[in-house]
Amino acid sequence: MSKATYKPILCLDFDGVCHSYTSGWKGAATIPDPPVAGMWEFLEQAVDVFEVHIFSSRTKQEGGKKAMFDWFLKWAVTDKQQGTAAMLIFPEEKPAAFVGLDDRVITFRGEWPDVEELRGFKTWMQDPRGATNRFPRGKFHESDEGELRLAVYVKDGTIIMDFGKSVAWMGLDAPSARQMATLLSKHADRLENGTNQS
Questions:
Q1: What does each C-alpha distance from 78 to 36, 50, 73, 146, 154 come to in angstroms?
Q2: Which of 81, 105, 120, 152 is deepest in the core (most CB within 10 A)?
Q3: pTM for the full predicted model
Q4: Cα 155 to chain centroid, rounded
């Protein structure tokens, strides 16, 4: 392959990344649920930049690879989506990818994670934190991802506000701002008093 046509490999996990997997495991060849919202829009852009590989635990199981391929064709309802589906690659082995998307991995940054935290790992669908894409007060502006669920707790003498994902900004109405201030104040009081209860 010449440098002019070379594309780096993007490896996508299937269940929980492409397939919404809301019904859980039904067998390698049974894929009952629709795509994760926004999948086609993402793939249509990705295939222009990457060689997109779909790899899954289904890949090596009987009927799994064909079922994944057929699933993409089933949900490709426009000509553009069908063209995108035709560009996907279903390798036999996990490729040496430039980058991957998987709902069950953590990026290693040279520092070993806490084993207990790993044991408590949750996928994006199991973790209630983060933007919900619901807009109970309307959309504030284009970067608004909707209401935000977060966890506030004390760990190692520090009050943690855990948003579950990167957050650029947060908007609060007056009652919500007071509620947040009260919650943080209660945690600060507990911390000062030497009690780390949530």
A1: 17, 21, 10, 28, 49
A2: 81
A3: 0.64
A4: 25
